[in-house]
Amino acid sequence: MLSITTEARMALGTSVEKVLRLVEARTGLPVHVQPDASLPGNLLAKVTMARGQMPFHQVDFQPNRSASPDYLIVFQCGFILRHYGVAPTDRVDFTGTPLAEQTVQDWVRNNPKTPGIAKPSADGLTSFLVNGILSQLRSVPVGMRVELWILNEYPELEPLQRAAVMKQLEDNVAGLRPQVQAMMPDQALAANLSMSAAYALFWAEKLGQPQLTLPYRASGHLEAGQALYEIWRDVPSDPSQDRSLIDRWANQVGVERWYQWVPSQSPA
Prior knowledge:
This protein is α/β, with parallel strands linked by helices and 268 residues long. It folds into 2 domains: 3-84; 92-263, no CATH class. The chain is built from 11 helices and 6 strands.
């Protein structure tokens, strides 16, 4: 059965109810949806899929960052549906490797922009960059599949989707701000901005707004983003190809040894 807090249920539309029931039908597990004001400011929602002793999926969303959480909930559910869209024996989880931290640690320590950076600051920046790049790699290309699914199947969510996307595009351009450029390692910026540029290219095409790519064209990152977007368009959209999609993006960005695929701990 659906597990939704009273506050969340009051805000839900029919498309959300439909998708939640679709998740339950496909996974055989309940979905718990709840508002969570403690989520980091730039994280509008998150999904935690059933694992081990957690026999349900959980979707948390920011209660005060959107007029309605419908799109945010449906978007997170899209990742569950894709994960369960392959045979149980083919389901895998994405996890970082020690090489990711070692590599970024070298970038930070040898960054000519911040000579003599203190160890606590270097360690904090290293963790931030590793988590950020791996999160982008895991979520952006597959997330674009989910976005297209929402556009095609739930057009009634388009106004909410557009508002959230425009906010995300605005947040992504933060990597081009002078204060960020002045301190971040160039290698980390290149990885981050190439994936952000691919995301901008996707939405520039879907929304008919080519100007969304202008920041990346001006900064010289659009070509790298175009290469990733072409990979996204080339890989079949079936969920069974999501692993290949991520692997090809990782190879293009140069972080293919930063993670590994392990058998999923999700219930069959």
